[in-house]
Amino acid sequence: MKKLFCFIIVAMVAALIAVSCKKKEAPAIEVSARLNRDSVNLGVLYVDQAYRHIGKDSANLFEIDTIYKIYQKRVFLAFPYKGEGSIMLYFGDEFLNTEIEGPARTFALFNRVSYPSGLACAWDEEKGTLVVTSKYTPDLLKMVFPGKSAYIDPASSRIHHSLASARAVNKAGGQSFITFIYHDDDPKLGQVTYKLRLKQLFVYVPQAGFQGYDSWYAMY
User: Fold this and answer.
1) In the chain, at which residue ranges do the beta strands (DSSP E only) sit?
2) In 3-state terms, what secondary structure has residue 84?
3) Where is the signal peptide (predicted)?
4) Could you tell me the residue ranges of all domains in the chain?
5) What tens digit of pLDDT does each residue of 167-178 get?
6) pLDDT greater than 90 at residue 84
């Protein structure tokens, strides 16, 4: 199960187009049956929740093994522009928010260097969503196996194109996240569905130079 979960953790991930909160704000994109092809500039993503569902039973994967928490705190997923191409990894740390309004969380990321995840994404016109597939096992993540796939669930996802857009939804009492779903036929557990909730990070200091990190990001 660790192998399957780690695939999912790595399978989600940030276009190098993270938008500064000082730019003109775009509204959040709320979707139902399909995503808009132009909406899948996802930016940097943080894995907020991860659950395994077997029939009516569910399990929080972060409570099953503490190694998952380590990945959650240090590894960030970077999708390519418009969701076409290889997914990369950034490394970083969370730090105390002293600048961004509201309950935002802030992170320092070393984004001058990215690392391969062994994953790629592509638009699926028939399904109207973005699909992520595992292509090979990378050196940094030996637990990633080729031939797996996950997709964004349009009905439970809200995509933003700016920090201010995410802040506005938060102030109104709403939540913003992107849900990825991964189905698997486990030899021991049978039919399993994994659901991961990821949140977008937006850069607000692009060249921070903080303790060796490159940029500061905020997340609601």
Assistant:
1) 29-30, 44-54, 57-60, 75-78, 85-95, 105-124, 129-134, 149-152, 158-159, 178-186, 190-205, 215-219
2) coil
3) 1-18
4) 2-219
5) 999 999 998 999
6) yes
82 token code pair: 């418009």
Q: Hey, what long-range contacts does 31-37 have (CB within 8 A, 24 or more apart)?
A: 31/154, 31/155, 31/157, 31/158, 31/159, 32/154, 32/155, 33/128, 33/154, 33/155, 34/127, 34/128, 34/129, 34/154, 35/128, 35/129, 35/130, 35/152, 35/154, 35/157, 35/159, 37/82, 37/123, 37/125
Task: Give the per-residue pLDDT at 38.
Answer: 86
pTM across the whole model: 0.81
Place of tokens 């399978």: 11
Q: In this predicted structure, what is the pLDDT of residue 211?
A: 67
Task: State the DSSP code for 111.
Answer: E
* DSSP code string of 126-168: TTTEEEEEE-S--SS-TT--TT-EEEE-GGG-EE-SSHHHHHH
Q: Give residue-wise pLDDT tens across range 5-25.
A: 344 444 443 322 233 333 344
- Exposed, middle or buried by CB within 10 Å (0-12, 13-18, 19+), for 49? middle
Q: Comparing C-alpha atoms, which of 11, 26, 7 is closest to residue 162?
A: 26
